[in-house]
Amino acid sequence: MPHNNVSVVLAHGAWADGTSWAKVIGPLAREGLKVLAAPLPLTSFADDTAAVERTLERVSGPIVLAGHAYAGAVIAATRNERVKALVYVTALAPDEGERVADVFYRNKPHPLAPRLAPDKNGLIYLPDEAFPAAFAQNASPHELALLTAVQRPISPACITVPVNRPLWKDRPSWFLMAEQDRMIIQDTQRFMAERMHARVRSQPVDHTPIITAPGVVVDIIREAIAEVARGQ
User: Of 68, 89, 115, 132, which alpha carbon lies 20 to 30 A from 205's?
Assistant: First the structure.
């Protein structure tokens, strides 16, 4: 597939790290694409935005920027002119003045969604039982063990600050709607995707398709790459 030097930058969500994108990185890299996963510290929204900006500086040419879950808010905070398309993988997309928590808690949660609260250090961990129940119910036992072992906590400072004008107002966007998501229910996803005027691709996948259904994630990123390449 011709991609005219388009690069791909990926941003992971809460309770994960860049390795969560491993099954997506491989197929894209084999096509000759430059692919980087931004290492979000999950310490504050500003820190996470800065981490994405630093990663964008490491690639040249036009960029497709993709975010999973919480990172949907982060990828929309960039003002980098080389970002030509945004891809939301069952991701959160607050509008100007909204907080991540506003959209995350917009609707009644799924019955199996975990109760979340900061620990004594002020960090929010995902309970171990939430990984097979809600975060990645379609994952294998090996994948679940890995997810649980490497989870990175998120600070409330990531989700309680109002965001500025999101980039999705000014760039084309794609939204992978996860029909089986128990963390961000489908009604919430639909509301955000329609408000963004995103190109929606709905699939019977769980909250973490980057691990449990990477092929559908690769396909939607390829769509964005193809459009960006045509525009060069």
Answer: 115
How far apart are alpha carbons 147 and 16 in whole angstroms? 7
In the chain, the number of structural domains is 1
For 193, the domain range is 7-230
Residue ranges of alpha helices (H) inside the chain are: 22-30, 45-56, 71-75, 100-104, 130, 141-150, 186-196, 209-212, 214-230
Instruction: Classify residue 2: in a domain, yes or no.
Output: no
What CATH code is carried by the domain that includes residue 59?
A: 3.40.50.1820
